[in-house]
Design brief:
This is ABC-2 type transport system ATP-binding protein. The protein is α/β, with parallel strands linked by helices and 282 residues long. The chain is 35% helix and 29% strand. The protein contains 10 helices and 13 strands.
């Protein structure tokens, strides 16, 4: 696969604070790319530069071999955006929200109707098409937001915390929709706090903290870099500690020396993140 997004030495500062720090990254066409990190890591700032809302202080962003900037109309037509915060018109129905989104991209007539009906069915929101957006459940609102982002059939979809505040069942249904989109050849960039979400959906995951990407690989390779087993235990000060092992016998031998309660389990992606940042994803 060829790269569809290329980020070269990008830095974004707000006064003395550096939100994104000399970042380099390539994202391949047709991939599902996860950006994982805690609050303040720089994820949303990076996405804002990728979609042309913010201008880097240094460096450049290229999408489909063109430099992204606020005035690049062609690139903006190739992008769909699902923001973290609800962006629906609460006084319009589900279908009216889609009609409004379609008009913004100058979709007209039969083409507009066909696309709206397709998305209503695809997102499983046909049954609520005449319901006011303010009366939708959290999961339905998120589905409608994804439908809005897809109204113009973009090549690239940016998802900023797309399942935040959504219950587990609705989250799983949204995951299924996103996996189908990936199978259709869309390039998807996901930022999330939910580690299991990134692990389940993404081909590659970049771990980001303090404006830098410090690891970028598949979930399995990320975990393998740390080991295979985790011993999670209390130390003498009742503080949770983690120790990682490649060999099960070594992990068991260490466990036998622990006086407090412990758990011996497979290494998780959260272990990898915690090991490199020394803090949980919150």
């Amino acid at each position: 696969m060829s790269e569809i997004i290329k980020i070269e030495d990008v830095t974004k500062k707000y006064g003395d604070f550096t939100a994104v720090d000399k970042l380099n990254l390539d994202i391949e066409k047709g991939s599902f790319f996860g950006l994982l990190g805690p609050n303040g890591a720089g994820k949303t700032t990076l996405i804002s530069m990728l979609i042309g809302l913010l201008k880097p202080n240094e460096g450049k962003v290229f999408i489909m071999n063109q430099e992204m900037n606020r005035n690049n109309v062609f690139l903006k037509k190739q992008i769909g955006i699902v923001p973290q915060h609800i962006n629906l018109d609460k006084d319009l129905t589900v279908k009216e929200n889609l009609i409004l989104a379609a008009k913004l991209f100058k979709l007209r007539g039969k083409k507009r109707e066909v696309q709206i009906e397709k998305l209503l069915d695809y997102m499983d929101i046909k049954k609520v098409e005449n319901r006011m957006a303010r009366k939708l459940s959290g999961g339905m609102k998120r589905k409608l937001m994804i439908a809005k982002a897809l109204i113009h059939s973009p090549e690239i979809l940016f998802l900023d915390e797309p399942t935040v505040g959504v219950d587990l069942n609705a989250r799983r249904k949204i995951w299924d929709i996103l996996k189908i989109m990936k199978d259709m050849g869309k390039t998807i960039i996901l930022t999330t706090h939910y580690i299991e979400e990134a692990e389940y959906l993404c081909d590659k995951i970049a771990l980001m903290d303090k404006g830098k990407i410090f690891y970028n690989d598949t979930s399995e390779n990320l975990k393998r870099s740390l080991g295979k087993y985790t011993v999670e235990y209390f130390d003498e000060n009742k503080v949770t500690k983690y120790k990682f092992f490649k060999d099960i016998d070594e992990a068991k031998n260490f466990s036998n020396s622990i006086k407090e309660n412990f758990i011996l389990r497979d290494i998780s992606l959260e272990d990898v993140f915690y090991n490199f940042t020394n803090r949980k994803v919150t």
